[in-house]
Recover the amino acids of this structure.
């Protein structure tokens, strides 16, 4: 999740991009970010360094809250990041409470794996034995909700 500046917000964001950096940063997400910004769409993506460490920073939470739309790029390792799952929970909360539009992109993953937490998403949850039950339940609910939304399925470089 690369740079667009996280310390100051010039106003409301048009789009917030959520993605697992190691999976899509230097390919799909960069192309998506470039396409959006070249059309004048004020798009937020967070800094690479933000994922290191503990909780989501207040500036990132504010960016989610101030966005009209969130695009969530679900990739093979998305659920392997507690950071991404916390971010998704906040996005789905903003959808519920503020009516934010959420558009999922299923990047080389089956939407049902996101919705049901199977495949690579199920493997990720098998690793979360030390995470509080409440937090895991929040993540699962957010994935189920987001996986049930209409979005794009990208497979072999094509939207299907």
């Amino acid at each position: 999740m690369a740079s667009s500046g996280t310390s100051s917000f010039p106003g409301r964001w048009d789009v917030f991009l959520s993605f697992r950096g190691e999976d899509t940063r230097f390919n799909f997400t960069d192309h998506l970010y470039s396409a959006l910004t070249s059309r004048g769409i004020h798009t937020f993506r967070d800094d690479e360094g933000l994922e290191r460490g503990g909780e989501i920073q207040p500036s990132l939470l504010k960016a989610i809250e101030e966005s009209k739309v969130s695009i969530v790029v679900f990739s093979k390792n998305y659920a392997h990041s507690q950071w991404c799952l916390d971010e998704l929970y906040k996005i789905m909360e903003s959808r519920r409470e503020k009516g934010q539009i959420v558009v999922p992109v299923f990047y080389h993953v089956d939407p049902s794996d996101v919705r049901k937490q199977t495949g690579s998403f199920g493997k990720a949850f098998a690793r979360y034995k030390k995470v509080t039950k409440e937090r895991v339940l929040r993540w699962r609910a957010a994935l189920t909700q987001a996986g049930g939304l209409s979005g794009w399925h990208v497979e072999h470089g094509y939207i299907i």
